[in-house]
Amino acid sequence: MAKDIAKTNKQFEEALKECRTLFGKKLHDYGASWRILRPSSLTDQLFIKAKRIRSLEIKKESKVGEGIRPEFVALINYGIVGLIQINHGFADTVDTNHHNQSGCCVSA
């Protein structure tokens, strides 16, 4: 039982590290452009990703070379953005970047 818990915790940490790494890369490349997104825009993005996962599961093929895992990573990161937006509210301008991570959880 303890081995299973340790294995699950390790898997969780590895998945979280993957999500955090991608989040940090996108924050570096695009800045915090997501700060202007309203909650309805984020729920739309979550819905789009969930539909994409379902499509990949049903069709069992991807024409753009991505798989289900990156879509789940995107779901997690959009969820994190949503939590940040709920906590801080959306902004009219980008008010956060990789140098000023107000409330952002991308540090390794």
Mean pLDDT: 86
Number of helices: 3
> How large is the radius of gyration?
16 Å
* Helical percentage: 55-70%
Q: Number of folding domains?
A: 1
Order of helices and strands: HHH
Strand runs, count: 0
- Determine the structural class based on helices, strands and strand pairing: mainly alpha
**In angstroms, what separates the terminal alpha carbons?**
29 Å
Overall body shape: globular
Largest sheet: none
Give the low-confidence spans.
100-108
Structure description:
Residues 100-108 have low confidence and may be disordered. It is globular, with a radius of gyration of 16 Å. Helix 2 runs antiparallel to helix 3. It contains 3 helices and no strands. The protein has 108 residues and is mainly alpha-helical. 66% of the residues lie in helices and 0% in strands. It starts with a helix and ends in a 20-residue tail after the last helix. The chain has one domain (2-88). The longest helix is centred in the N-terminal third of the chain and has 29 residues, at 2-30.
